Amino acid sequence: MIVPVVLSGGAGTRLWPVSRKSYPKQFCALLGKDTPFQETVQRTKTLGLEAEPIVVGNREHRFIMAEQLRQVGVEAASIILEPVARNSAAAMAAAAFWQARYDEEAILWFMPADAAIENHAALKEALDQACEAARQDYIVTFGIRPTRAETGYGYIQQGHLLEGQENAYHIARFLEKPDAERAAQFVQDGQHLWNSGMFVARARVFLEELKKYEPTIHEAVSRAVQKTDCDLGFVQLDGDAFSRAPSISVDYAVAERTDRAAVVPSGFSWMDVGSWDAVWELTPKDENGNAVRGNVFLDRARNCYVNSDGVVATVTGVDDLIIIVTGDAVMVSHREQAQDIRHMVARLRDEGRPEAEQHVRMYRPWGFYESLIRGDRFQVKRIHVSPGEKLSLQKHFHRAEHWVVVAGTALVTRDDEEITVRENESVYLPLGCVHRLENPGRIPVTLIEVQSGPYLGEDDIVRLDDVYKR
């Protein structure tokens, strides 16, 4: 049996400001209507894999993952939640330990949730070859034949052919991201492949090698899985145990050290959608090499990528720029410097700017809210509540609220009252009152919330009851 494992813990800072910690790149529809996370999950079904996926991701994104899985018809996935980020070695170990409880000989196909892959027939052929090597107890990665001198990827040097295999080779060595000169040499010599970050291995074999080379990670994750708490359909890893695992990538922890590492040279089209220049390359372009998304107008621009979320963006007389416009941030970069955007995000974070990690629109298990206007002692928000969902029963110490329903019908609890608020009706919630909003209908409820008070922070919430157990 082949069990797909989707690794969804990345932050995607090089795709800021669309990708942020609160809603990272794998959940953003950058290239089409589906997100990279959804495309990764659907790819396993396209290849005919019958096993439901194991998804490993950040606890803060649990409801986003569940909803995006539901949207593509995946209802039975095992969603394993990391209480803290500990890189790919610990995430893969969590999936392997979880699967080993049922079948330690199962072959796991570990996939980052942020790659764009075309030519599924070639992918299926490579997967079959990788599985053959995995059945001989190898840990197999896919090496992509390079099509250009890419400096943003790691490389693998191909060794000699494995005994009894047609297209699986020992790995001579892993190489870090090269400079332009070395990357050009790698493309020319034909012995070097892009490191795709995907691995195929039996659960037992991966855990044996992890225990040999990183026993601390093995022990910490083993205990975290033993103490899991399954709640609301999620697999919650024990936080104390998991946090003891060092934060190390699987390349450093296992792949570069084990004598069981192997590579399958692969011809399918693969790209790590990790920066805006990669998005530009994958997006259809006009006759001047420009790729756009959203409300954009161009004049005498060439080889640009422009993405505007709502606000009209006009671009005149420039070449090779990336311009991203969101509701609260504008990012402009030369395309050749797109990999360096993360440095600016780090600077914003150091300055304490919320834009570094939080979106204007914040997703919650019941829907989302977004800030529209903020001033001295007041704030206006738009709140969207999905059918059948409800906010927590709560109160505030520093603010009063006024809710105006603009679509749908809301059921509002206010102290001892239950009030039905219909479209174009409103309700006032005085300071300190216990309140809750519920959507009992079949269409979303949209309301405008006006907050007033001396402190309007999100931490001024006392939850008395919450169906999502936050």
Query: Could you list the spans in which at least 5 consecutive residues all have pLDDT below 50?
Result: none
CATH classification class of the largest domain: Alpha Beta
Shape: globular
Structural class assignment: alpha+beta
The biggest sheet amounts to: 6 strands, antiparallel
Q: Numbering strands along the chain, what is their spatial order in the largest sheet? A: 18-19-20-27-22-25
CA(first)-CA(last) distance? 36 Å
Describe what you observe in this structure.
Keywords: GTP-binding, Nucleotide-binding, Nucleotidyltransferase, Transferase. It catalyses: alpha-D-mannose 1-phosphate + GTP + H(+) = GDP-alpha-D-mannose + diphosphate. This protein folds into 3 domains: about 1-270, Spore Coat Polysaccharide Biosynthesis Protein SpsA, Chain A (Alpha-Beta Complex); about 285-350, no CATH class; about 360-465, Sandwich (Jelly Rolls), CATH 2.60.120.10. The mean pLDDT is about 95. It is an alpha+beta fold. Strand 16 and strand 17 form a beta hairpin. The chain is built from 11 helices and 28 strands. Helices cover about 25% and strands about 35% of the residues. The strands form 6 sheets. The protein has a 6-stranded antiparallel β-sheet, with no helix packed on it. Strands 6-9-7-8-12 form a 5-stranded mixed barrel. The longest helix has 15 residues, at about 120-135. Helix 6 (about 205-215) crosses helix 7. The two termini are about 35 Å apart.
